[in-house]
Amino acid sequence: MQASQFIAAGQLSAEVNKRVWEGMGYNASAFGVVPGPADVTSVMQALVNKAQADGIKTIIMPPGQYNVTALANTEGITFIGDNASFTGGYIGTVLSLGSIPEQLVDVVQGMVNSKYMSVYFCDNAWRQEIDYFTRFAEHSFNSGFKEINILIHVKSDGSTDEDISKFSQYDEIANDIGIPITCLKVHGLYSNPNYLTRTYQALNNLSKINTVFVLNEQFSSVYGHGLDYPSQIKSNYQNVKKVGCTVDYGTAFKSWIPAVAGELAAIQAAYDVLGVHMYPSCGCFSEVKQTTYDQCLQAFNNLLLTIPWEKEIWVTESGVLPFWQFLELPENYNLSNLTDTTRTIDPQRLFYRALFNSDFANRARVIIPWYTESWMYEDTVGMWDVIKNIITNK
Q1: 91: which residues sit within 8 A by CB, 6+ positions away?
Q2: Which of 11, 34, 183, 261 could connect to 211 by a Cys-Cys bridge, CB 3.0–4.6 Å?
């Protein structure tokens, strides 16, 4: 059986397609696009539009000829499949997967990688250097990441920790390497002067941004102060398709108090996505030699999102620096005692493998491992290899 036939088998319902391929690619047959003499231009265009809106990069085409007269494919969606082609006038190409199992694995792993996003901090002078960003972007690209999330921190005086004027250079470098900056996350209180102004300045220097997160860990303030942020941002930047807000681990899984009737509905109506920060701790992390993958996975699967969010979810922060104590809750981080002796790969391997395979992470559209740039260094390359191998399912 050829690779595309293997993919198509059992993937013919939209529900199964959503569960298996959401975040990776859409199977054309699951959306009514079938080969044959009948004109499927309209349903194919609808699928392309959906993929573009959902941030999906790939459409899988089972074998056959598809009668499509024309397509508007502005985001460059890739079509893949064996013995599949377009007729009817559309000149787009369907890339062949091939019939070798290893090729299928490579393609699927490449699509899986698209669920994970590298994150760049440029909040101090050495991180702002162009050469440093170039190293980071190349390292992320070579490690299998497809996109970059960049941050800004708006301070109480209205300035930012970042040199936003350099963002256009970062943008050009990232695009040249092939790992575009597609997500902006804005830190700082909404009440800080120039909060939206600094957001707009960053967006003006980033050509590929399609998702923006605002009101970082300020979910309780969204209803009173941020319901109009999504419409303002999207009206000013046509390339921005999604605007989200984020919530910290404690609020997301332990302590959220239901809002006044109608508030959550209003937030979900205004915002496209909820970003959740995953920093859970559990007893099984206390002794690494006694810790098992099953214990870690159970700890993650026992988490219950207390906010009844029905729309798209991202894990916008997950794990942190490669130190033992960062497996604890944020309030228990021992920031005064970061030494080489606290570094260890084994607990982080358990943490990430369990997190990435948890029910909640499987629900998430995107997962962002935190502080990915810290693993560029020689003394932490082992940790980076762990993350890379988990992402590529090795």
Answers
A1: none
A2: 183
SS (H, E, C) the chain: CCHHHHHHCCCCCHHHHHHHHCCCCEEHHHHCCCCEEEECHHHHHHHHHHHHHHCCCEEECCCEEEECCCCCCCCCCEEECCCEEEECCCCCCEECCCCCHHHHHHHHHHHHHCCECEEECCCCCCCCCHHHHHHHHHHHHHCCCCCEEEEEEECCCCCECCCHHHHHHHHHHHHHHCCCEEEEEEECCCCCCCHHHHHHHHHHCCCCCCEEEECCCCHHHHHHHCCCHHHHHHHHCCCCCEEEEEECHHHHHHHCCCCCCCHHHHHHHHCCEEEEEECCCCHHHCCHHHCCHHHHHHHHHCCCCCCCCCCEEEEEEECCCCCHHHHCCHHHCCCCCCCHHHCCHHHHHHHHHHHHCCHHHHHCCEEEECCHHHHHCHHHHHHHHHHHHHHCCC
Q: What does the block give as tokens for 16? A: 């199964």
Question: For residue 98, what are the CA distances in angstroms to 107, 276, 325?
Answer: 10, 38, 46
CA-based torsion, 368, 128, 218, 222: positive or negative: negative
Please count the CA atoms within 13 angstroms of the CA of 197 that sit on its side-chain side: 9
Stronger pLDDT, 181 or 305, i.e. the higher one: 181
Residue 229 in tokens: 């942020």
The pair of structure tokens assigned to 90 is 């559309």
pLDDT tens sequence across 22-37:
445 788 887 889 899 9
pTM of this prediction?
A: 0.69
> What is the token pair recorded at 366?
């995107």
Q: First and final CA of the chain: distance in angstroms?
A: 24
Nearest CA-CA partner of 249 in 290, 279, 271: 279
Residue 160, pLDDT above cutoff 50? yes
Q: How many residues does the chain have?
A: 394
Residue 134 contacts by C-beta under 8 Å, 6 or more apart in sequence? 173, 177
Nearest to 35 by CA among 5, 78, 3: 5
> Is the confidence at residue 117, as pLDDT, over 80?
yes
